[in-house]
Amino acid sequence: MENIYLDNAATTKIDPEVIEAMKPYLLAEYANPSSTYTFAGQIHGKVDDARKTIADFIKAKESEIYFTSGGSESDNWAIKGVADALSAKGKHIITTKIEHHAVLHTCEFLEKHGYEVTYLEVDEYGLVDVKKFEEAIRPDTILASIMFANNEIGTIEPIAELGRIAHEHGVVFHTDAVQAFGHIRIDVNAMNIDLLSASAHKLNGPKGVGLLYIKSGLKITNLIHGGAQERGRRAGTTNAAGIIGFGKAVELADSRLEATNAYETKLRDKLIARVTSEIPYVRFNGHPEKRLSNNTNFCFRFIEGESLLILLDQDHICASSGSACTSGALDPSHVLLAIGLPHEIAHGSIRFTLSAETKEEDIDYTVDALKKIVERLRSMSPLYEDFVKKQAQ
Question: Looking at the DSSP assignment, which residues form a beta bridge with residue 143?
């Protein structure tokens, strides 16, 4: 049978229309867009068209969109670039304990170079407390980096309010919007966003291309040197085909966004309802309402998430135990620990992330398989056996 792919937070299937849009620039129209001849200039124009499509999607100016290799590079550039440019003003940065490792590891790198970072706690749903965010701001705070929506548990943060508070205190505000971009309507001006990271492969576009939105007038040091591409801000031969594909993916996401969200929400809620009502000793993670339309995350007590994944894979079901960038790690999710789960429960986590291609029968098949797998694994668990005995006493 075909795989049931429920790991769309890790990456998405490239849309056939995106492939068709990219094809000419992989084959006949292969010139370097930075070259001066007409052949190259035509390609450069198509790159600019994609830039405009993407800028319009988040209500930005074309001159504020800079193309990168993906979300991780964009996060690194935003944080390191502002930290360096504003170091004379201060060396204090605010972020959260549930950020993607592209943000957390960048902040840890800066801590080794004289910067101080405050890692905000979150509540049991993964939400940042707006009041505690404001209390963390100091005279030497130069940057706050808060993710738009969490990649593991799907919780959507109060970005507009956090951005407003940051601006009231003269703090630059960055959001890692890799999971939200293309799935939530974003207005960078109305939401008080100075810097925004996104990646094409999270919305049915190609891998290897992303963007950093940089608000006009913002001081930021370049991360990659060696050429005058991206108006002198990001060196490297322009990934014309990738950028054009990114533009097409955004165009398609824009036209389908509300319909896709409604469809995914219906299937998501069915999955949540069936799992939580038909499988005992399961915890649903993330905010029940303020969440991405396609994201579900569960913890199954008394069993390991890795064992669940292996057996799901044998049933041709693709899922995840957490962030795709750390899926090979044996440690429990830092996000689940941050929302207050003990290690033994956090270890039993599974994330299912849906798409517009997910069918209702895929949900039913997955839950039916999951029930059998959980029952099988618990039958072999001494922890579960002890728990049942205590319950019977």
Answer: 93, 172
